[in-house]
Amino acid sequence: MRTRRIGARVLNAISVTGTVTGIEPVAAHLRRVRLEGDEVRGLTWTAGQQVRVHVSDLLDPHNWRRPRDILRTYSIWRYDGGLELCVLDHDTGGPGARWGRELQHGQPVTFGRPEGSFVLQPEAPYHVFAGEETAAVAFGAMLAALPADTPAYPLLEVGGPEDRLPLAREVPWLYRDGRPAAASAGLLEAARRLELPREPGAAYLAGEARTVQLLRRHFISERGWPRQAVHSKPFWAPGKRGLD
Ligand SMILES: Cc1cc2nc3c(=O)[nH]c(=O)nc-3n(C[C@H](O)[C@H](O)[C@H](O)COP(=O)(O)OP(=O)(O)OC[C@H]3O[C@@H](n4cnc5c(N)ncnc54)[C@H](O)[C@@H]3O)c2cc1C
Fold first, then answer.
1. Are 164 and 181 in contact (CB under 8 A)?
2. Is 229 found in the same domain as 168?
3. Residue 153 to residues 35, 47, 172, 199, 201: CA-CA distances in angstroms?
4. How many whole angstroms from 243 Cα to the centroid of ligand 1?
């Protein structure tokens, strides 16, 4: 009991706890979760950053047997004093998907402060975004933060039209129509077809790990962009648990 009290104090110092005040579908398989509270109100963040959510109780020794199942990372969809995440309910259904499915209004949620360097490069002349459903959450925040006159080329592949998210810019959505998201030939082909200005911009590649790798190779090897112009962040991989 005493150990749990000390643990709770340490945890409070390094994390934030909010209360679920909203849960609603933002697309067919994606739930928007809103967290509010005194600790949530004071956060600072940059579009593209993420939080590490305690999807099971870190202080419960039963959960220590599966340490890889305690934390899952989610991009910040929106922050206005309340924090909004979008959680995918994927078919394999790991602890993150289960957590999102079982969340209730009024439930406390503990998470780490916003972190990460997968953010907009303000000096870039234009911005390319490529990925699938999970990447679309971070891209949604980044597109909303871009000045209206800054050119953006979003390339997003989702399961079908029902999986589209509401985004700040027009998106030429691509549909998998039953094909797996891993190593997506559809996204790679779309990236190859993309007509871009001659000079490199900034490319943001996120989502399934192998697709991110293929897209990264395309921008660096096929288009000859410098490595520092290509920002990639694998979010998940088939068969792997909790990639971050
Ligand atoms: C920086 C970062 C930002 C992220 N942002 C988001 C976000 O905004 N929204 C979001 O939903 N997720 C996001 N993720 C992914 C998220 O952290 C989890 O990996 C994801 O929710 C799956 O967790 P899980 O516990 O359900 O499955 P895990 O235990 O992690 O994985 C179990 C298995 O499920 C399958 N799987 C996992 N994810 C998917 C998927 N997306 N589609 C199909 N099959 C899958 C794989 O086969 C995997 O082996 C992000 C990850 C990172 C690193």
1. no
2. yes
3. 31, 17, 9, 14, 10
4. 7
**CATH code at position 154:** 3.40.50.80
- How much distance in Å is there from the Cα of 244 to the middle of ligand 1? 9
Spacing, Cα 119 to ligand 1 middle (Å): 19
One digit per residue, the tens of pLDDT, for the chain of length 244 reads 666 676 777 677 789 999 999 999 999 999 999 999 999 999 999 999 999 999 998 888 888 888 889 999 999 999 999 999 999 999 888 999 999 999 999 999 999 999 999 999 999 999 999 999 999 999 999 999 999 999 999 999 999 999 999 999 999 999 999 999 999 999 999 999 999 999 999 999 999 999 999 999 999 999 999 999 999 999 999 999 987 7
Residues 6+ apart with CB under 8 A from 235: 73, 131, 134, 135, 206, 207, 208, 209, 243, 244
Distance CA 25, CA 91 (A): 16
> Does the model's pTM come out above 0.90?
yes
Domain containing 34: what range? 2-112
Q: How many domains does the chain have?
A: 2
Compute, in angstroms, the gap from residue 184 CA to the centroid of ligand 1: 16
Our mutation pick for probing the ligand 1 site, out of 49, 90, 208, counting the most ligand atoms within 8 A of Cβ, is: 90
Shortest-distance Cα residue to atom 7 of ligand 1: 74
- Ligand 1 pocket, residues with Cβ under 6 angstroms: 50, 72-75, 86-88, 90, 92, 94-97, 134, 137, 181, 233, 235-236, 238-244
